[in-house]
User: Fold these one by one.
Assistant:
Number 1:
Amino acid sequence: MAMKRLGETERNMRGLPARMLAGAGFLGLAGLPSAAWAGMGQPSPWQMGLQTPATPIAQNTQWFHDAILLPIITVISLFVLLLLVLVVAKFRASKNPVPSKTTHHAGLEVAWTLIPVLILAAIVVPSFRLLREQITIPKPDITIKATGYAWYWKFTYPQDSGGFEFEVRMLSDEERVAAVKAGKGKEADFPRLLAVDNEVVVPVNKTVAVQVTAGDVLHAFAVPSFAVKIDAVPGRLNQTWFRATQEGIFYGQCSELCGKDHAFMPLAIRVVSQAKYDAWLADAKKKYARIGDAPVQTALTDQAR
């Protein structure tokens, strides 16, 4: 009897994810106008679609997805579904006891070769245009360097921007609670698994070039709201760029499986006005001043160690 109940429980648990997914999908569709859309700078509960774009490249990427790719794949999916329904209804065994032995049809052969080629041509033109915009880096106003380590980031501002560097590590739950109790912000200002001890700060409406590398294993620098993702490879210096058009804080993460704490190495980029950036830069030169060859760490960074 116990084994029978155990078997029933196991079967129910196996079916649970499917039932939960179906229910969640229904509720998500029912709540489309309100909670389903992505937030600004970070993922949202029950999110559908890409994060709200904050750069021209991200806006073009989202347009390409919503206006071109999504309609095309929707039409293709509905067309394939229609074909399946027609095949099941028209060629079922009860209606066709003797199966057709037709093996070739010239019209079909031409159609299913030509139509996919035309669809891919319609996709590839705007896709290549967007790719060119992403890899063509305009003259930067600011250049910073991001180096991935297991499992944290180090950001370096060159001499013309202050000549300092700092490490970025994820805040633990205890550190998030302590920051709220210390009056440094509300709980929403320290999202779980995204909040960090040190934020990268850049001015709004300025072109920022990011040189990306790694100090140990493969990592990837990614900020979804900027439509930025590039590999961080040891011994190689890759480069990407963004120009944020609105202020706020935008979270990213390592997007290359790099080890046991891969899921716990976020980064945060705060976009501010030029005046606030100048004030932060003056303070950062003192805060991250070097002693010999070692950068001075902040209290939060030391605690994160």
Number 2:
Amino acid sequence: MLDGLFDPLRWQRTFQNMDGFWQGFGFTIQVSLAGLLVSLLLGILLGVFATTQSKVLRAINRVYVEFFQNTPLPVQVFFAYMAGPMVLQAITGAASPVRISSFTLGVMGVGLYHAAYVSEVIRTGIESVPRGQMEAALSQGFTRVQAYWYVILPQTMRVILPPLCNQALNLVKNTSVLALIAGGDLMYNADSYVSTYGYLQGYIVACVLYFLICFPLAALVRYLEHRSKQPRKPKKGPIPVEAEA
């Protein structure tokens, strides 16, 4: 079978069936972007929960993070795929299980999973900011929410950007879990092609297309990590003029 990897006729047929690969490529990008938005919004909220003085909010964060970090993503997606329609049926009172689209499953699957990791990144970033910043913001009349949004979170960007981009990279690769439930993503379409024709070229094409998405993100992660290690340059201001005696 490995000899067939260099068969020009197989490559020709593969390139003739690129429509399915491009369709999966576009679907993967859509799921990745929407899932990243979900993970960022929920992760920021949970990260803030972890740094508050409320024991209830900290407990919510801890339970969520421990659950999603210590259970495999494929198990979570399979459970949502099998049990989700029945849960929605019970909630809505429908006569039959409510079908969940593969797009929704993918977005919620990778979004909720990576939100646990994003929240830990946000928590680490917030804890790197001196506590006096929060006290100073509150003393100036900011509410706690405003203090987080306008004072604390902007100061964490230098610390959290590299790991956040790394999470985005992992999220893109984890969308391939949708292939297990016929999700229509890039990996599913590649697997369908290989199952139909028996040509391993389908997996090679999938690897190349994943590379096109992931390599720019990996390069961005390396750039941000390098930049974060560089000492900050002091801002140049006007040179004070000494007063004449």
Number 3:
Amino acid sequence: MEKDILSVISRDTAGFSKGQKLIAKYIVENYDKAAFMTASKLGKTVGVSESTVVRFAAELGYDGYPEMRKALQEMIRNRLTSIQRIEVSKELITNTNILKDVLTSDMEKLRSTLETVDQAQFDAAVETILAARRIYIVGMRSSTALADFMGFYMNMLLDNVRTVYDNAANEVYEQIMRIGEGDVLIGLSFPRYSSRTLKAMKYAKSRGAAAIGITDNDTSPFAGVADICLYAKSDMVSFVDSLVAPLSLINALIVSVGLHTREGLSNTFTTLEQLWKDYDVFAGSEG
């Protein structure tokens, strides 16, 4: 089946019933909102029954409405502008309990990530990191926070880690120009995907380096480039990117790498604790 559901709808319009044409018209004109509606909500919005919506999904060749909605979400994942995301959030988040809505949504992303993460790919990522000559971590835009977090802790565990920054003073390619065989580039990106991170990964691959992608699902452009891909859910519920599940996945990677270097980890933190004490790094730690 074609991945772009709008193409499927356009192809089959002539055979639709009156109710199905209403659904099709609404989806084409409001795909950003329809992608996050239940069958019941979509039916009420359009003015048809829930069963008509379910039959519409079957007419398009989907096993059920959830599969059709997933196809819509995958299509728009990298299309929505910030303005559209604000409009979507109005449908999904109520003003009565924003705290509960957002935290519940984040917990669902964590649960979904735990259920779908590939343990073999996770183990392969850890082994690749441990065996690497040099490790480059690249994350841009909102993923910069993830790259900083990962780089901060990986630098405590290993002495061959470099976090790559995207700024005018130091171009990305200048920072990874010596990458090559035996090295690994870890690229982090979530919708809307960073083209610069993707290009950096492609450059690393062209130089013979390994590539680990940390992204949201197998439709991500990073899935076709990285040697190893780890997926963490980051669906859009507002104009703010949800990085809870990606951060948790990165946390698991850091802990796993640390436990594989147990003796070095103890020595590192023994040294750090002394440094922190000597130079009063933490408030209230004097004496």
Number 4:
Amino acid sequence: MPLRQAFRQRSLMRQHDRRRYQRVKVNLLGRFMLEDRHEYPCQTADMSPGSIALTTPVAGRIGERVIVYIDHIGRIEGTIVRIVDGGFAMTINATLRKKDKLAAKLTWLANRNELNLPEDRRHDRVMPSNPFINVTLPDGREYRARVIDMSLSGAALGVEVQPPLGSPIMLGRLRAQVIRHFEEGIAIEFAAVQTPTSIEESIVP
């Protein structure tokens, strides 16, 4: 029967994806759009080239189509398959070639901090005219931070609070996430690589 064969083929493809791809824990910021075309912020909890779990303020409904834009990953389309506390899990609709590329990128992202890969060293160091900056946490609390070191892709900040690794924060008007703790404060990574001008305009009052 054609319908039964098609259903079986899709089932076998899903099983193949589960064997082929490993789910990894990555904390990336992004935004997603539901079918009503409303956008909301989100953060990845874990991800594979075939599925993704998101922490979100709105859950949507099972079977709903979702479009997600994730920092360092780009646009992803899929369908909500499970509602969880504080978010949802969704499939990723993509070609095999795109999934293989996504697998390589996820492996790099997952190992970047552990292996201390020198991505930041490729970006020029900058120092804003005012080294004291307001840091805003997801719950709205603000802290005064001192810039210890800054590049076009991130910064080391002297600050009294240490949010959990992967926490999204705002540095002035720049979106970033916490990637490391050290004795004096935290290291953060910007959601996108900046220019000296954009840094100055975004973080200086």
